[in-house]
Design a protein that fits this description.
The chain is of the alpha/beta class. The protein contains twelve helices and ten strands. It has helices at residues 31-45, 68-71, 76-81, 88-92, 109-116, 143-151, 153-162, 168-174, 186-198, 202-214, 220-233, 238-248; strands at 7-12, 15-20, 52-56, 61-63, 98-102, 105-107, 119-123, 127-129, 166-167, 179-181. The strands form two sheets. The protein has a six-stranded mixed β-sheet, with helices on both faces. The chain has a four-stranded mixed β-sheet with strand order 4-6-8-9.
Amino acid sequence: MSSYENILVETRGRVAIITLNRPKALNALNDLTMREVVAATAELDANPEIGCFVLTGSEKAFAAGADIKEMSEKSATQMYTLDWFAGWDQFTSRRTPVIAAVNGYALGGGCELAMMCDFILAGDKAKFGQPEINLGIIPGMGGSQRLTRAVGKAKAMEMCLTGRMIDAEEAERSGLVARIVPAAELLDEAISTAELIASKSKVAATMVKEVVNAAYETNLQQGVLYERRVFHSAFASEDQKEGMAAFVEKREPNFQHR
């Protein structure tokens, strides 16, 4: 595994833990952090021995936003020609499941990064928001799109227009967060959940991620048909044979991830 400046990467069995590590900047997402997260997850995604990622920050902040100092003096032409933030699209293309473990602030780009993950586990003190309007700008890493899909138009519009933060309980009620965990137990619970996912067939987990994400892009009829075709293709895997044999024989499956 490569060495990085703004993130920490470790593996525990089939789980990879990626920690945003700019504590003095509350893990503000600068260009280097983006490039490091993209590079680390690309390397891990290609590793057949890794079955799930956990992306986390510190107790105080998952990520308090994009790095404003880095952007503030740029012109529209520079932002456009550099296609600022486009690199995050590579992160969202990862096929391995990704859990966001959010403690503290997940604001602006931090909230957007959490939403790029497959689901969010939140510490009970977590705060989410899209406060870009307070800077005279709008979300730029997918916030207006993913937040609307997660919580609906009314709440997304209110959050983006007012910059209001929501706490973990409101985030869970609204559908942004999968579960709330006591802050001190968050990382352990996220790793435990990742270990459970990683113990399943990686082939099937990749398929699950693909078909659930397809629900964003298709109508119901097309989505159901797509799911059925991917379901059919699962029968080409060794893991399907092992999983069903184990069920019939009343034993635990021994998946080989192929």
